[in-house]
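Reading a protein record of the kind used here takes only a little practice. These numbers are not coordinates but entries in a learned vocabulary of local backbone shapes. Here is one such record, which you should read through line by line.
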Amino acid sequence: EGCNQVAHVNRYRLMQAVTGSVVVWSCLLGGANLWTAVAAVLVQLTWECILIFSRYGPLCRQLFRTTPGAFQWRREIWPLQWKIGLQSAAKYLAIFPLIPTIFAWQSPAAAGRVGITWQVLNSLLLVAYAWIRTRAPEFGTLIAQGKTDESNRAFFKATFGSTAMLIAAVSSFWLVLAILQTHDWGLATKVATRFLAAGTTIWFALAMIPLHITQCFSIHIRSRKIDPIWRVSILGNVVLAPSLFLAASQASVATVGIVMLVIFTAVMVSVVAIWRHCNRSE
């Protein structure tokens, strides 16, 4: 993307999202259970490898052979890179123990339903996120040119479109799930029983919205080559980890979804406030 290959990269991301969804649903219908999550990650990894080693293999090799110029990675990239990496690790460590906790404290069946439901919702989130991620270089270019108002307009347009797409996608998923769970016939029962009940799924679906909005505002803030949100992000995940453990071990699965919704919303409000502060400072 930094080499102005945004269109090509996101074409691969689109194929990644589409084939990932096809594989997820095929695995569910085929009775793969928790292996569905493994298959989804494998599809993602396969497309990444094709992109890096096949489509842009020569470019990557050339970059390694290129003599360094005036660009200083430690000064221009590393200050932002380590913060993003730390946030990603904190998010992973906060959410990863959820399924094993439900497995141990509730039941393997409940853990399987949570895992599959969460995987489908994350696949939908990935599709919506790709909508705004393709615009990130444009945001940064406009900001670098001093055209902050134009960057803001483009950002809000893209955020509105991607959020509307996400809401439509998760709503459709929930509606189909609710319909399937009200019909007592072979295939509907087979699919519906793999997922959480519709009344429980709605909390996880709602939690996707503030999570997505947080990602959108984070992209626009980082387009300035700064990342002041890392403290808020890490704090949110530090709070999320024990909260999910307590909810999963001592309460119901629906409570887990509610906890996610509350914490994701709090982080979203904080990130939006940081964005407003950065915008006023320019």
Observations:
- The mean pLDDT is 90.
- The chain has 13 helices and no strands.
- Residues 148-180 form the longest helix (33 residues).
